[in-house]
TrEMBL record:
Alphabetized UniProt keyword annotations: Lyase, Pyridoxal phosphate
GO CC entries: cytoplasm
Protein name, as recorded: Cystathionine beta-lyase
Function: The enzymatic degradation of amino acids in cheese is believed to generate aroma compounds and therefore to be essential for flavor development. Cystathionine beta-lyase (CBL) can convert cystathionine to homocysteine but is also able to catalyze an alpha, gamma elimination. With methionine as a substrate, it produces volatile sulfur compounds which are important for flavor formation in Gouda cheese.
Record-linked CDD domains: CGS_like
Modified residues (N6-(pyridoxal phosphate)lysine): 195
Any one Gene Ontology BP term: transsulfuration
Length: 379
């Protein structure tokens, strides 16, 4: 099935007990066990819940994997995958990785004896050069947050697998509608379900999908042991939102491409970071491995212009963190999403203080252009 059909019919989209087209919310913490010491399909919702199981099967289907696990946030999902590491292991991450991921690696994992190297993962030779004997994971974020760099997942996976390393891809910016990392060689795909999967800025969630039974068993153990599972209510909301994923992403893709072209023509804008622009260094790779270029982009204003004034005086683009909702959002990474990264590291990796990140929603395109036009003109 094409993904436009998968979002409606893929996975367990109905209740096996009653045939209800929409799986019910099993709002329970525990289950009646009819035989002491007997085997029960459901014992405790931290481990098993029908509503979450239904969502997990849909997510695995969308990412073309076999095993899916839903978590209470995107960072909980990332933490679960990082739980595959132990003291003495080495990790390769992208130099412009999301600030929350960097904070986890730098402030939580590093003191536990897990080392890391940050490189431009769009350069496979840089990944190769960063390999160490104790490297276990190559963690890719593509398109990256916030500079929109696109890593060739197939090429990076080939390099990593040749050295016996695992490849993990954060698919948050693309979503399974635009990109399927497991089909390109990745071992694990994860994402913040808060973003395009949820799509309405009303759910915090994350997920992990793999095709490997061995990796799945490890992730399941971490999910059960740590307990950062998605609740039945959020699982229900996420599965509901998935049904419109294809429709929403088609509009996000179209709107963002138009906005990127529009901003590239504005005198107040020095640079647009968007892989859908033919002049972008990431364009060819993105076109090869992505169905659409996504709804995310970043811009540099011309030197001397007041970034704070610009983001505070837009009317439709809401100044807020997060992304992927139906409404358009705007933020300044250095102050907001990437503030946890030391400034000297941010600057060295191209994340300037004046960088502005946009999440383009599904509003009328002319209204969005007019909002940006008046905001830029006010500068």
């Amino acid at each position: 099935m094409d993904i436009e059909t998968q979002v409606i019919h893929g996975g367990n989209q109905e209740d096996p007990l009653t045939g209800a087209v929409v799986p019910p919310i099993y709002q329970t913490s525990t289950y009646h066990q009819y035989e002491l010491g007997g085997e029960a399909a459901y014992e405790y919702t931290r481990g098993e819940n029908p509503t979450r199981f239904a969502l997990e099967s849909v997510l695995a289907n969308l990412e073309n994997g076999q095993y899916g696990y839903a978590f209470s946030s995107g960072m909980a999902a990332i933490s679960a995958v990082m739980g595959l590491l132990k003291a003495g292991d080495h990790l390769i991450i992208a130099s412009d990785v999301y600030g929350g991921t960097f904070r986890l690696v730098h402030q939580i994992l590093a003191p536990l004896g897990i080392t890391y190297t940050a490189v431009d993962t769009a350069d496979t030779s840089a990944i190769q050069a960063a390999m160490q004997e104790n490297t276990k994971l190559v963690y890719l974020e593509t398109p990256s947050n916030p500079l929109m760099h696109v890593t060739d997942i197939r090429a990076a996976s080939d390099v990593a697998h040749a050295a016996g390393k695992l490849v993990v891809v954060d698919n948050t910016f693309a979503s399974p509608y635009n990109q399927r990392p497991l089909e390109l060689g990745a071992d694990i795909v994860l994402a913040s379900g808060t973003k395009y999967i949820g799509g309405h800025s009303d759910v915090i969630a994350g997920y992990v999908v793999t095709r490997s039974k061995e990796l799945a068993d490890q992730i399941k153990l971490i999910q059960l042991s740590v307990g950062a599972v998605l609740s039945p209510q959020e699982s229900f909301l996420l599965q509901r939102s998935i049904k419109t994923l294809a429709l929403r992403l088609e509009r996000h893709n179209d709107n963002a491409l138009e906005i990127a072209k529009f901003l590239a023509e504005q005198d107040q804008v020095a640079h647009v970071y968007y892989p859908g622009l033919p002049g972008s260094a990431d364009y060819e790779v993105a076109r090869k491995q992505m169905r659409g270029f996504g709804g995310m982009m970043s811009i540099d204003l011309q030197p001397g212009l007041d970034t704070k004034y610009f983001v505070e005086h837009l009317k439709l683009f809401t100044l807020a963190e997060s992304l992927g909702g139906v409404e358009s959002l705007i933020e300044v990474p250095a102050v907001m999403t990437h503030a946890s990264i030391p400034r000297e590291i941010r600057l060295a990796n191209g994340i300037k203080d004046e960088l502005v990140r946009l999440s383009v929603g599904i509003e009328n395109i002319e209204d969005l252009k007019e909002d940006l036009r008046q905001g830029l003109a006010a500068l």
